[in-house]
Task: inverse folding
């Protein structure tokens, strides 16, 4: 056991910190819409132009090829610098479409897509879930019929985050109509400008429209856009999900520590209805301290997991446990801040920039449902970590 | 950077596991009057050098570090080892007199823990110990227990006897500064992590064999999901324990913060996991002959030593971490 960073790691931290200090955008991200997507692309381009894009991507594909530990350092510095949050409209492209193409794509797919993703030119969205296929992803029914050198896609996807802004989609379809469950699926790159695609934004409880239902009416996708092989889409999809469940949330994990300190700061400045400072209330103080302990332990868990993965080269099954811990802590923190802020917490008009804490509170459910619900994470933990008899 | 037992540490951990399980198995607590350590057992621990892992070689110890100390106490916790083991070990790190230290390390003189309770002290561990050790974040004090009046009290936790001591004599050795408190926090946190792990292991094993309605209970989600939550608590508490142990070893400026967090996470994990373990066992879980209640009762005691919830959380609000 040791907590030593190498000299090179420390230099990396110092240079990341210096660069971020000078380059983090001064104006905050627009709350929503194409302006927000523009902001995200610009930030991605800036990272790219200064050699900071793709910390996890291999060097041969234009990334930095950093070890897990260096990635931790990078995300800690992002959080410290209050840099734009990494879960934004570039997230799917950077955190799973790109890595999936790197792992399973053809040479032509890599050559075309990877530079566009890294530079922020292309945004992606994820079309896996359907109205009747969420937790049970293998129930996907959106149909793909091979016709010459194209696949004709018809059906509907649901919950597609940022579909309106995306240039491409990672699309999971059933290409063998006689197949069931995990067989007969195919993972394709779908150009979101293709004729026959209809995007219908869905208003969420956050009062935003960042998810959409996407309808496909005989959309023609070139066979050259298949990632992996026709009929092997489940295997490709698992690769995608592994990226998301591995280091995908590392930024959130490490950012929690900054957030709890901000909440403690808030509690030392904000007065309760009875005139006392919130931090003088024993209940609030104790809950904040307990959450802070959780955040510090989450950091230790992250480092333990990363160090193990750096050594073995194989991500362990701990991502699900991490997500359970992080989503629970996120919600507990949002709840206590709700009490600190009193009535003003309820003055929410859907503007996440003006009311970040209320927005974050509402986001708790997005966090514990999307990317595999907490119940599914418990199932994965029971199966893969504890080896309990299967429930299904 | 590596946050798990590694190299020689792995061997020390497995040697400790085998030794403690053999010399002081949790099943001993099913027999009456099994609390504390008797002299032969203490001497056996002493012979193997377990009380002096973190004592420098020049002072008669093994010259290892806080990390090995934590690895050992995790195993002591798994077997619900008495607080005497920790008191003995901390006294070995406190004593400045060479021959006294040698006797403590060898297990020749027993040490029990003294904890202030209002005007009096609670004595936790064998009342026939010759020495008492009181530890606070400010320092450690060693007392002679010879001739003092100790009033026996009933003890919920069968691993330790409890006494109340009205008048504590003057300490004959004392040490300012927090090094002993740190080892105490680390040891207690490690024992609690061991308990939290033992509770999880018990229920996972049982859930694989016990059947209801024609299925293993481990296939019911109402059992699987609390088990997954137990695993999360273990993972968090254990990762933080390793972090804190390494922080003490490397004398990092924020070691005290990491210890407080480690003790808090260990308190929480042990109390919640021992509770869930009883519930998920059903009726067998509340029987005296099952080990589930032993883990709970020992966790209740340990969670009050070297940082109770209120004390730790008060300290954590303003704490700051280093990179
Ligand atoms: C804001 C948001 C953004 C999203 N973005 C995307 C996206 O960009 N792309 C995409 O493909 N998907 C996306 N999703 C979809 C997300 O992955 C699914 O919502 C999620 O996997 C749950 O599926 P479901 O909604 O169909 O719920 P269901 O699967 O119907 O689940 C209903 C309830 O039953 C529980 N449950 C289901 N099965 C089990 C089981 N076996 N054991 C125990 N409990 C179970 C669930 O935990 C849940 O509580 C997003 C979702 C949200 C809310």
Result:
């Amino acid at each position: 056991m040791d907590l030593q960073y190498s000299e090179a790691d420390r230099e990396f931290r110092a240079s990341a910190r210096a660069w971020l200090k000078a380059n983090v955008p001064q104006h905050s991200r627009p709350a929503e819409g194409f302006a927000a997507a523009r902001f995200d692309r610009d930030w991605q381009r800036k990272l790219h132009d200064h050699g900071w894009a793709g910390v996890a991507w291999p060097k041969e594909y234009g990334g930095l090829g950093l070890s897990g530990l260096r990635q931790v350092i990078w995300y800690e510095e992002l959080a410290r610098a209050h840099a734009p949050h990494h879960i934004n409209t570039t997230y799917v492209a950077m955190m799973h479409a790109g890595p999936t193409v790197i792992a399973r794509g053809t040479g032509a797919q890599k050559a075309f897509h990877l530079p566009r993703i890294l530079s922020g030119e292309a945004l992606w969205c994820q079309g896996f879930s359907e109205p009747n296929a969420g937790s049970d992803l293998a129930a996907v029914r959106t149909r793909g019929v091979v016709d010459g050198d194209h696949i004709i896609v018809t059906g509907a996807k649901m919950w597609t985050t940022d579909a309106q802004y995306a240039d491409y989609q990672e699309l999971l379809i059933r290409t063998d109509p006689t197949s069931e469950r995990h067989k007969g699926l195919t993972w394709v790159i779908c150009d979101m400008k293709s004729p026959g695609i209809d995007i219908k934004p869905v208003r969420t409880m956050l009062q935003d429209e960042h998810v959409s239902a996407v309808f496909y009416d005989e959309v023609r996708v070139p066979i050259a856009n298949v990632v992996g092989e026709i009929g092997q889409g489940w295997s490709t999809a698992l690769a995608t999900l592994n990226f998301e469940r591995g280091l995908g949330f590392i930024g959130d994990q490490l950012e929690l520590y900054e957030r709890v300190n901000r909440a403690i700061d808030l509690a030392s400045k904000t007065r309760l209805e009875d005139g006392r400072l919130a931090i003088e209330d024993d209940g609030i103080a104790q809950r904040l301290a307990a959450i802070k302990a959780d955040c510090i332990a989450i950091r230790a868990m992250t480092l333990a997991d990363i160090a193990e993965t750096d050594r073995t080269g194989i991500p362990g099954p701990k991502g699900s446990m991490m997500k359970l811990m992080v989503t629970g802590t996120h919600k507990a923190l949002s709840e206590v801040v709700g009490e600190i802020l009193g009535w003003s917490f309820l003055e929410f008009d859907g503007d996440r920039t003006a009311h970040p804490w209320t927005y974050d509170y509402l986001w708790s459910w997005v966090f514990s449902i999307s990317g595999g619900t907490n119940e599914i994470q418990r199932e994965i933990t029971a199966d893969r970590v504890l080896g309990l008899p299967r429930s299904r | 950077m590596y946050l798990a037992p590694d190299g020689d540490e792995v061997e020390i951990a497995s040697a400790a596991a085998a030794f403690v399980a053999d010399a002081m198995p949790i099943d001993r607590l099913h027999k009456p009057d099994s609390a504390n350590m008797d002299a032969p057992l203490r001497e056996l621990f002493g012979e193997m050098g377990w009380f002096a892992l973190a004592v420098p070689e020049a002072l008669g110890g093994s010259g290892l570090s806080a990390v090995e100390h934590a690895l050992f106490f995790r195993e002591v916790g798994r077997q619900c080892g008495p607080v005497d083991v920790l008191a003995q070990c901390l006294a070995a790190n406190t004593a400045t007199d060479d021959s006294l230290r040698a006797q403590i390390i060898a297990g020749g003189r027993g040490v029990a823990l003294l904890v202030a309770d209002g005007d009096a002290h609670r004595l936790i561990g064998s009342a026939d110990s010759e020495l008492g050790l009181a530890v606070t974040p400010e320092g450690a004090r060693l007392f002679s227990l010879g001739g003092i009046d100790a009033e026996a009290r009933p003890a919920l936790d069968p691993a330790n006897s409890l006494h109340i001591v009205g008048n504590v004599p003057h300490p004959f050795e004392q040490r300012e500064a927090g090094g002993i408190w740190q080892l105490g926090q680390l040891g207690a946190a490690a024992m609690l992590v061991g308990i939290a792990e033992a509770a999880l292991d018990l229920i996972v094993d049982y859930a694989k064999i016990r059947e209801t309605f024609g299925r293993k209970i481990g296939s019911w989600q109402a059992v699987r999901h609390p088990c997954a939550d137990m695993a999360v608590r273990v993972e968090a508490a254990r990762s933080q324990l390793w972090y804190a142990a390494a922080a003490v070893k490397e004398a990092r400026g924020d070691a005290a913060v990491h210890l407080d967090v480690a003790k808090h996470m260990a308190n929480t994990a042990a109390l919640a996991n021992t509770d869930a373990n009883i519930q998920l066992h059903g009726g067998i879980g509340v029987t005296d002959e099952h080990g589930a209640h032993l883990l709970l009762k020992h966790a209740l005691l340990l969670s009050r030593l070297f940082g109770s919830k209120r004390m730790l959380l008060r300290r954590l609000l303003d704490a700051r971490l280093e990179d």
